[in-house]
Amino acid sequence: MLKDVLTYDLDVVFCGTAKGKKSADSGFYYAHAGNKFYKILFDAGFTPHRLVPETCYQINQHKIGLTDLVHKQSGNDRQINKSSYEVDLFSKKMIEFQPKFIAFTSKTAASFALGFNGKTRHINYGLADKVIGKSKIFILPSTSGAAARFWAPEYWRDLRKMI
Questions:
Q1: Which parts of the chain sit beneath pLDDT 50?
Q2: Coil, strand, or helix at residue 142?
Q3: How distant, in Å, are the alpha carbons of 36, 126, 156 from that of 15?
Q4: pTM (whole model) above 0.90
Q5: What residue ranges define each of the domains in the chain, with the CATH number in brackets?
Q6: pLDDT for residue 76
Q7: pLDDT the model gives residue 161
Q8: In 3-state terms, the chain is what percent helix, strand and coil (to 5)?
Q9: What is the pLDDT of residue 4?
Q10: Strand order, beta sheet including 64-68
């Protein structure tokens, strides 16, 4: 599975649910050709140029970190066992590294991290009223092509403005 891309003094850590099959196979975050992650990072102003999945392990130079809540399985949200979510481990990492923001790249990831156990009806896009340690929480629409009907890039731009 993929390694976390974390360090100290980050503006934001993007946290997904689990690696997709293409990412798990290639060894790079957000590797599927239909994923909008690197495009929106550039379009919203997080990076000065468009990155590619193969550069994901150097993303810290842009004050960005990457992780997921599930490390032992890969696939889409429906394929992940609820017992695979490592919320306590994730929270410990966020408390240690203290990014300014934790940005969940799906409502499902946010629902598990915020204690709703996969129930996304309690989750809204945008700034949440909770924190993990000192880190503010922001929920973003998924960049996955499988979630294209929910795509709303304005939330990504809103997060960038807040940083």
A1: none
A2: coil
A3: 15, 14, 14
A4: yes
A5: 12-162 (3.40.470.10)
A6: 65
A7: 97
A8: 40, 20, 40
A9: 95
A10: 64-68, 12-16, 101-104, 135-139, 126-132
